[in-house]
């Protein structure tokens, strides 16, 4: 089983920056995708950015050009550098680990989530 621990959240003024970190431990697959998702009160959990073990990335439209996801495979760690933060970025940010597993003869994805870290951006 994989465990995820996030850190780096906090309160920042609009236009400021934060860097989130997520460290994975446990039974980590060599073939996985890690990412960051966020959820504001009363809203759905949305993808922020994802990164494969090979380094390919995808970003949510609202953060393109402002956020950068990266990972250090040797340390089992993923980062989210957030620049030019806006009040609408305020949310709980969750680290995600996705791997492919075989269950009942079929291949499926299995997700593990971190506990979340609060990011608050003031105007």
Could you please describe the fold and organization of this structure?
The protein has no helices and eleven strands. The chain has 123 residues and is mainly β. The strands form two sheets. Strands 2, 4, 5, 6, 9, 10 and 11 form a seven-stranded mixed β-sheet that branches. A four-stranded antiparallel β-sheet has the order 1-3-8-7, with no helix packed on it. A hairpin with a 4-residue loop joins strand 5 and strand 6. The termini are far apart.
Secondary structure: elements and pairs:
Layout: E1 2-7, E2 10-13, E3 18-26, E4 32-39, E5 46-52, E6 57-59, E7 67-72, E8 77-82, E9 91-103, E10 106-113, E11 117-122
Parallel strand pairs: 2-11
Antiparallel strand pairs: 1-3, 3-8, 4-5, 4-9, 5-6, 7-8, 9-10, 9-11
Main sheet properties: 7 strands, mixed
Oligomer: single chain
Report helical residue fraction.
Answer: under 10%
Q: What is the molecular shape? A: elongated
Which key phrases capture this entry?
123 residues; elongated; mainly beta; seven-stranded mixed sheet
What is the structure about, briefly put?
The chain has 123 residues and is mainly β. The chain has strands at 2-7, 10-13, 18-26, 32-39, 46-52, 57-59, 67-72, 77-82, 91-103, 106-113, 117-122.
């Amino acid at each position: 089983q994989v465990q995820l621990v996030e850190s780096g959240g906090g309160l920042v003024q609009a236009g400021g920056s934060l860097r989130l970190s997520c460290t994975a431990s446990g039974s980590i697959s060599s073939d996985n995708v890690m990412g960051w998702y966020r959820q504001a009160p009363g809203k759905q959990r949305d993808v922020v950015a994802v990164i494969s073990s090979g380094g390919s990335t995808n970003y949510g439209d609202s953060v393109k050009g402002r956020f950068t996801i990266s990972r250090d495979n040797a340390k089992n760690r993923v980062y989210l550098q957030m620049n030019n933060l806006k009040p609408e970025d305020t949310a709980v940010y969750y680290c995600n680990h996705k791997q492919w597993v075989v269950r009942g003869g079929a291949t499926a994805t299995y997700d593990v989530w971190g506990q979340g870290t609060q990011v608050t951006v003031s105007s």
